Amino acid sequence: MANSAFSLRHFIYLIPLIVLSIITPTHQVVPLGSSISARDEGTSWVSPSGDFAFGFHTLPNSSLFLLAIWFQKLPEKTVVWSANRDNPVQGDSRVELTNNGYLVLYDHQEREIWKKPKAGNDRVTSASMLDTGNLALLSTDSSHIWESFNEPTDTILPTQRFNKSIQLSSSLTQFDYSKGSFQLRLRDDGRLVLYLVAVPSGFTYAPYWLTDTAEAGLQVVFNESGYIYLTLRNGSSVSLTPGNIVSTQDFYHRATLDFDGVLRQYVYPKTNESRASWASEWSIVMYEPPNVCLSVLTSLGSGTCGFNSFCALDEQQKTSCRCPPGYSYLDPNNTFAGCKQDFAPQSCQLGGETEASQFEMKELRNVDWSLNDYEKYYPINEDRCRQACLADCYCAVAIFKDDRCWKKRMPLSNGKMDYNVSRKTLVKVPKGNYSVPIAPISTCRKEDRTALILIGSVLFGGSGLLNVLLLLAISIVLLFAYHRQKLMDHRPDPSMLGMRIHSFTFKELEHATKGFKEELDRGAFGVVYKGVLELDSRHLVAVKMLDMVVEKGEPDKEFETEVTAIGQTHHKNLARLLGFCNEGQHRLLVYEFVSSGSLASFLFGSMRPDWNQRMQIALGIARGLVYLHEECSTQIIHCDINPQNILLDESFTPRISGFGLAKLMKADQTRSITSIRGTRGYVSPEWFKNMPITTKVDVYSFGVLLLEILCCRRNIEADLENEERVILTDWAYDCFSETKLDLLVENDEEAMDDMKKVERMVMVAIWCIQENPMMRPGMMKVTEMLEGVVEVSKPLQPYSMSSVG
């Protein structure tokens, strides 16, 4: 009786634990004999939280299946592991946890495709899909006999780790999960390495990215907080994840070696709160290498992309492979497979000079195929470089730079397109097939072309003498029209000033500025002078003399091309470019004159500007940047957003000036750490690192500028007595984290009465100045947050502790 009472009492104590274990199980047990058929759509083994599922995943645009693990709750069920990536199966296939303790995949003919575990001493008694995304085969004591975490495919998840016996292999393409051309390994020498791999042989070429951990690296860890790091023998670690990361509680995390050879860490919002400031999609928070197009360089193999193609990155750091003129993809479904010629190549038979005249050189910009040279000329000019390739039947491409010419033959490898590839690339193609013929009458108005067609009809129907007379008359008319048009082109029409770009002589601009006498401003790209163009009436202009060194005193066609692109931008928040000078060593730009001066003089003068007016100025600048980044035909990264480059017109509408200048500079000038073209205090951290320069550099500068507009003070004020307030960005974050935002606007009564907007502005600014560019929003999102269209979530600390001090 006593024993019964004792047992009952203890059973009552255990009830809460039993109930709790039922409500929140640590894992769901899959017993022996369980199976899933590929035909049973929607059937899977799901983890207790419902975050992950194991079963058959239908391949896109296919009737084949992968035995896989994926994120179950997301609209796109992202695959994180697969058993049969190189051997997908048909619909009558099944997977079974057999009664003798093996997990086996059978195809539609009942053949074993995949089987785990290998023979061992311990016997599998059950399986479980865990909340971590790990599929485990368990023994009687719930220890793991086999687990998917120990055999990853292309992805690792939080709580996962791997050592020197494990590797990641990329997928072949975005929708083909079979092994691709890239591998991540922890080598025996302690370095974490990315390799290019020959498919299908598996031969590894030289590494294109590796950590500086020789004889030190032990294990790669993806911890529960979302950080990926490499542990070292001395007990320390090297982090791959940036200093600030969103939590695994509110976001799903994964790190994937993508099919383009980039190791990327992604996050996806779980909750409605996190979705308020993040897109409902996978967002990148880390990637290595910084630019895969420039990193992969091998003497054997095709490089990042297939042969005869070139690699390029977009603003989201997504890689694309492109074909040169006259070439097309070998496989339209796999653009990484390379490109083929769409024409018969030039013959090498004797007498080939005649055939050479049937080819021409088409120009590509910022493109190169490295390590394909078979001949080099120096010194040589561009025209002779073209002719040397046209006359050589082996030559497919010529590269010209600085009086040097390299000839390249097929197949072309290591193709890359990047802003820093400052070379002129000439691709040989047949004449006519890949070029647009130039028609002299194409500039005529529609009614002029109609008249010429009518005249031509008369020519065919009239007598020979009439034909001659009409031809003579037409020639006189066209000659007169030509000279009249040249006369009109030489002098700008006052009514059209600013509507089309105009070429000025240096003497004209020297006269307009009275010898460059009145200086308006001085910035990172040159000095601005006030001038007057004497046309039918006087037009005030601002003339910027670019700080450029031109070695040759010759016009630069590339400069004119870029200026023309800048001149085609039209937006109420951009300063209009009216013209340019490209003469000898002189490079000048002519802008409309904006009457109210720069934002710097407006903000930092003796009088504090109106609060609402400042907010409208901030919004106008944001809209101008959205246009430059996303809406104009050629994307423009400003690279020097600061108060001196924001001008105000008579109604105090902000006009961004100086945009496009970074691209006019030489590549080695803009990217070199010792000659960064930004303005001190506004330069984003990636300028100082081996990272690509994207639109996010402008987002960073805008964040700094937004705080200056908010507080009416410069970002850096070294003469302040309170050292904590010297750097505005640091002080603003401190005030925000300590809920003391009133200190930022303590002398501004209008702002003090609108603290909700102050808080929103500060939060937007802190998101913009995140050290990791991937954590910064795009300017469209910034604009929406400023307008109050979307909620602004609590920002992270902008700088990692390792970067402070």
Automatic annotation (TrEMBL):
Its EC number(s): 2.7.11.1
Record keywords, A-Z: ATP-binding, Disulfide bond, EGF-like domain, Glycoprotein, Kinase, Lectin, Membrane, Nucleotide-binding, Receptor, Serine/threonine-protein kinase, Signal, Transferase, Transmembrane, Transmembrane helix
Bilayer-spanning residue ranges: 12-32, 451-482
Keyword DNA-binding: no
SUPFAM superfamilies the record matches: alpha-D-mannose-specific plant lectins, Protein kinase-like (PK-like)
Top-tier EC class: transferase
Pfam families the UniProt entry points to: B_lectin (PF01453), Pkinase (PF00069)
Protein name: Receptor-like serine/threonine-protein kinase
